Fold these 3 entries.
Entry 1:
Amino acid sequence: MSAQEESGDGAMAVAHPSAAAAVITWYRAHARDLPWREPGTSAYGVLVSEVMSQQTPVARVAPAWQEWMRRWPTPADLADAPTAEVLRVWGRLGYPRRALRLIEAARAVVERHDGELPEDLDALLALPGVGEYTAGAVLAFAHGRRALVLDTNVRRVLARAVGGEALPAPSLTRAERERARALLPAGDAEAAEWSVAVMELGALVCTARDPRCEECPWHRQCAWVGAGRPADEHASRRRTQAWHGTDRQARGLVMAQLRAAGDGESLPREALLAAASLAGAHRGAAADPDQPARALVGLLADGLIATDDEGATYRLP
């Protein structure tokens, strides 16, 4: 990796050659023992881990991933799985539409690629629910390829160490992509290890709050540390939303009721509305009278619940 690379906005992306080696060395000593990093994990297993890990803590993902892979070890197995069973195993990972996208992706893999996850970037991107990050992660972590892998952790590390910013902009920019691509080592194996190492560094050391800079292998060359750790210049543009009292919580309460029901069992609309009405109740939040019904309408539209009697009762699909 060259010491300096030109980024898309004209700024110089600077990374000392020793930084890559130091970060990779740190990773080899501190990498978490995650089940999808075990030798022999399939590309499909990596895909499942990446989709599950989006906006969900790894501690919650690991047991769900292991159960998922026990039940559906191949795309063909998942393609034939009952949707209700898949949603039950998804459990409390949150954003259950991701589970539906995984089913759709598995079916597409069976139909288009004879049940084997493709190794081509464009073919991966054509799968339902697979975006730029997920496709790059599969290529890098399953196939050891040089690919752009830009999750929240990587973006934060590069924003600080190279850009001198406390946190990256709320939305991924073209300049960020080009900077990250310029910093990738040239060889496939080293680039793949670099990508997972930077991601792990962001997860364990260069965290969003209270980063442990003294433990960071990039500390001496970090532009943000060198600038005195300036405050987040994008703070006013960031949206924060509490969980309690939101439509997401109301939807989650409905899904919890239906996951606990027996196979094929439908629950009355009134019972599900009552469950949804508890969103935010523990903190004394004012009830939104329209929220419970809105939760049911949204879940039905998303294909996460189904009704056989025009809404008198609901079940998992």
Entry 2:
Amino acid sequence: MQTAKIPATIVTGFLGSGKTTLLRHILDNANGRRIAVIVNEFGELGIDGEILKGCGIGCDDQGEPTGQLYELANGCLCCTVQEEFFPVMEQLLERRDQIDHVLIETSGLALPKPLVQAFHWPSIRNAFTVDAVVTVVDGPAAAAGQFAANPLAVDAQRRADPNLDHESPLHELFEDQLASADLVILNKTDLMDTAQIAAVEALVRPEIPAEVKIVPARAGSLDVNSLLGLNRASEETIHLRIDHHGSADDPDHADHHHDEFDSVVVQAGTVERDTLIAALQALVAQHTIYRVKGFAELPGKPMRLVLHGVGQRFDSYFDRAWRADEARGTRVVLIGQDLDGALLQAALEQALRG
């Protein structure tokens, strides 16, 4: 019987930073490690879970399972630790002899600190430890100034002018995800020049402890040995990390409202890739959309196309063949603020018609 604590790596980061890509890279290079995966989605479609199901973790119909995928659809582990996360950890505890490591991907809207604190619960503490909190940063987005706001300066402005009492929650989320990090991955550096990389590092460094490294990466491709086995036992020091929102049991946690974000699904039939991306880019330009992700059916193609979008940047790739027993088509999740599903569906249809 296994008696050592099972290490768990928590992967956090803002919407579109590359968390799922990083997990897929780790699973593809597990080198025999038996890894259980917990994916926390924000949105009505389990996109991230679907993408990970082809990584040999026992979620598809091919081969023997080497792990297990658990999907939590609430979108915020920090707010549903007791209701959703704890039962999953109990299931993992029953299988501890079959597990070498646990990967937990939070949604882009989740706060990692309350999740790390949950590892103090007796039944979890005795069996699991937080190997590390890995925060993935979207380098080009940060370089564009999307997360450059200084909270102290904004607070000073709010004090001087009460009309400015509308600070975006995105900056606080970004800073809290950095504050909990044991390792920061500066992702998508292939899309940045040297000056931009230096600027983002200068932005991130004040938000993290001095000993935390900032590691550059392209598409989350790093040596897995540098990601797993860091032995930080983060639950022992997480109380020292400063955050904006407090724990889930703190009354101040009420400030962390996910109703500030909307998630809607838009659909289409068979579409050309370039036509679809152009239509989605038009929606992003006209509405407050932070993240786009979904699947598309292309004419004459037996493979399913995966779409990811942040701002006007879109990536796509074929992940697997359409199954005979599944409904084909194009289904895309849009995450942002003040989104009207019916309006966006109509706008997409009009954009596709050209």
Entry 3:
Amino acid sequence: MSDILEKIIAVKREEIAQSKKRHSLEAVRFDAESRVLTRDFAGALRAKIAAGQAAVIAEIKKASPSKGVLREEFIPADIAQSYAEGDGKISAACLSVLTDRQFFQGGVDYLKQARASCDLPVLRKDFIVDAYQVYESRAMGADAILLIAASLDDTQMRDFEAIAVELGMAILVEVHDGAELDRALKLKTPLIGVNNRNLRTFEVSVQTTIDLLPKVPAERLLVTESGISTREDVAKLRAAGVHAFLVGEAFMRADEPGEALAELFQ
């Protein structure tokens, strides 16, 4: 685990402890289990691919630790609508909303606002290290959660997946290399995310996804993450057989994020 990831996880555990004091696990679990109408996250991705298009998980992200604020005028509902509309022909399949406060200036309300403004399934993108957060994710309305293999052991991933499935949520498990991919493939989720950012050097290369693709069984759906910013990147990945993408920073500085998405994936 990288130093920055360790720092984020340490802060996350403190936040969870405070959240548990405000709302008990039992209360959050009850709330989560009462929300039965999830949107089909994996189905939305596969539908785009079946239609011959790229399946894009479009990210709503105000800031990052390395680049600071990405979008000053940050209105999640408007961004979500822009992604859902695209240019009228090409649009997002799903949304990803950052809810981490300290490092990404995200928030739970951002996810709620984005989901309420359109019909797209929504991924809660955060650093999940406790079962409490899985229930919390469904309680806030998330249709899917991100599990980062680098920050979890096999038992945690299996347990969190089981809870998510019980709640009707999809799981996108994120890996950075072959060893993490081997661990991820022990799970039942069809969604495997390959983060193209090297956790040690922080260099980004879409070649990471292409190199790992042959190890991903045909029945799984590989989602490439990070470093997709040009049509050349998209063309290279699609030529290799990658058709699902998670992209955020490339759109956040555009006046109309949905039009920027359509232009990148046309």
